[in-house]
Automatic annotation (TrEMBL):
Keyword Transferase among UniProt keywords: yes
This protein's name: 5-methyltetrahydropteroyltriglutamate--homocysteine S-methyltransferase
Enzyme Commission no: 2.1.1.14
NCBIfam families per UniProt: PRK06520.1
Single Gene Ontology BP annotation: methylation
Span of domain Cobalamin-independent methionine synthase MetE C-terminal/archaeal: 11-340
GO MF annotation, one: zinc ion binding
Taxonomic placement: Bacteria, Bacillati, Bacillota, Bacilli, Lactobacillales
Source organism: Enterococcus raffinosus
Enzyme class: transferase
Pfam families on file: Meth_synt_2
Keyword Amino-acid biosynthesis: no
Length: 367
C-alpha cells in the first residue's frame, strides 16, 4: 500500500446537503422514522461518492454523512462509554456540545454500526478505494478519562494501567473488524495531541494530576501498541488538526513539542498535518519524519476563498527543505464538516478546493 496516502487526498468529512440536514432534524422531532432517515443518508452518500469519483479522487469517503460529530458517534458505539450534553465556549462561540466519559470496562462492540456503514461505502466506491475514518485512541484517553470530571467522580478502573490495556485491546479489535469488513485504508483522527502543546490544556492536564510531557511519550506508546497487530496490507494514516468546529479552532501552538514522538510511529503510512495558516508554524518539525509520507494540509476548509495555486506550490517548495518531495502529498487541512453543521463554506467552495488539490498535485508530482 505504498501509494497510500495518495499524492492528492482528502481528510474525510464533507458538507451535509440541505436534504440530509432536514431529514436529521425531522427525525429528531419525531416527524420521520429511523428507516426514512437511513434512506436519505443512503441516497445522499451514493451521490457524494459519485461526485468524489467524478472529480478524480482515488480515495472516497461517505462524507461522514451518518455522523453528528467526527469522533463521538464512533466512541459512543463502544462498550463502557456514556455520552452527555453540555454547553461549550471552547471554540470561541457558545454552542451545544456533547462529551463522553468512561462509565464501564472499555471494549469494542462487534455489532458497532460503523462496520455496516463502511460496507455500504465500499460497495458504492466500486473501483475507488473506500477510506474509513475513526477517532484515535488518545481522544478517549484525554477527554473521557484524564480530563473527565464524571470519570474522576466515579472511577471504573483501579489504576490507569488497567484502563490503557483495555483501550489498546479495544482499538486492536476495531482495526481488525474494519479489515474483516474489507477496509484497506483506515485513518485515525486524533486532535488530542494538540492538548499536549497548547498552554491552556497543558495547565488543565497538570491540574488533573498528569504531566503533559510524559503524556507525549505515552500517547505515542498507546498508538504504537494499537497498531502492533494491524494486517500488513492495511494502510493506516494519522490526521491531526487544531480543532475545526463551524470554522472555529481549539488549540494554539506548533508541532515542535510533539513532532519527534509522533513522527517516529513507523506503523503509519502517512500523516495528514495542518499547515493552512501562520498558527501552524514552520515546516521544520517535519525533519523528524522517517520514510512515511507527509500530507501537507495547505488548503483550508475553514474559509471560502480559493487559494492561489502558485502560492501552494511555493509552500511545497518550502517544505522540501525538510522532507524530500517524493514523501510529500497534498490535501485540505481538515474535513469540511467535522460536525453536522459544517464549516462556513458552500458545497461549491468545497468541490473547488478539492479540485484545486488534485490539479496542483498533478502539476507537482509525476506519479
Amino acid at each position: 500500500m505504498s501509494s497510500i496516502p495518495f499524492r492528492f487526498d482528502q481528510v474525510g468529512s464533507l458538507l451535509r446537503p440541505a436534504r440530509l440536514k432536514k431529514a436529521r432534524e425531522d427525525f429528531k422531532q419525531g416527524a420521520i422514522t429511523e428507516e426514512a432517515l437511513t434512506k436519505v443518508e443512503d441516497e445522499e452518500i451514493i451521490k457524494v461518492i459519485q461526485k468524489q469519483k467524478e472529480i478524480g479522487l482515488q480515495a472516497v469517503t461517505d462524507g461522514e454523512f451518518r455522523r453528528r460529530w467526527w469522533h463521538l458517534d464512533f466512541i459512543a458505539g463502544l462498550n463502557g462509554i456514556t455520552v452527555y450534553d453540555f454547553e461549550t465556549t471552547a471554540f470561541g462561540i457558545t454552542t451545544e456540545a456533547q462529551g463522553t466519559f468512561v462509565s464501564g470496562p472499555l471494549s469494542f462492540d462487534s455489532e458497532h454500526p460503523f462496520l455496516e456503514h463502511f460496507k455500504f461505502t465500499k460497495k458504492q466506491a466500486g473501483e475507488a478505494i473506500a477510506k474509513q475514518t475513526i477517532p484515535g485512541p488518545n481522544m478517549i484517553y484525554l477527554d473521557s478519562f484524564i480530563l473527565s470530571k464524571q470519570y474522576h467522580e466515579a472511577p471504573v478502573y483501579s489504576d490507569k494501567k488497567e484502563f490503557v490495556q483495555d483501550l489498546i485491546a479495544t482499538y486492536q479489535a476495531a482495526i481488525q473488524a474494519f479489515y474483516d469488513a474489507g477496509c484497506r485504508y483506515l485513518q485515525l483522527d486524533d486532535t488530542s495531541w494538540g492538548g499536549l502543546f497548547d498552554e491552556r490544556f497543558r495547565e488543565l492536564i497538570g491540574k488533573n494530576g498528569y504531566d503533559p510531557d510524559e503524556l507525549i511519550q505515552e500517547f505515542g506508546d498507546i498508538t504504537e501498541a494499537v497498531l502492533a497487530k494491524k494486517p500488513a496490507d492495511l494502510a493506516v494514516t494519522f490526521h491531526f488538526c487544531k480543532g475545526n468546529f463551524q470554522s472555529h479552532w481549539l488549540y494554539n501552538g506548533s508541532y515542535d513539542k510533539i513532532a519527534k514522538r509522533l513522527l517516529s510511529i513507523k506503523a503509519f503510512n502517512g500523516f495528514f498535518l495542518e499547515f493552512d495558516d501562520e498558527r501552524s508554524g514552520s515546516f521544520e518539525p517535519l525533519e523528524n519524519i522517517q520514510d512515511q509520507r507527509i500530507v501537507l494540509g495547505l488548503i483550508t476548509t475553514k474559509t471560502p476563498e480559493l487559494e492561489d495555486k502558485e502560492a501552494i506550490k511555493a509552500r511545497i517548495q518550502e517544505a522540501i527543505q525538510f522532507v524530500p518531495l517524493e514523501q510529500l502529498c497534498l490535501s485540505p487541512q481538515c474535513g469540511f464538516s467535522s460536525t453536522h453543521e459544517g464549516n462556513k463554506v458552500t458545497e461549491e467552495d468545497q468541490w473547488a478546493k478539492l479540485r484545486l488539490v488534485i490539479e496542483t498535485a498533478k502539476e507537482v508530482w509525476t506519479d
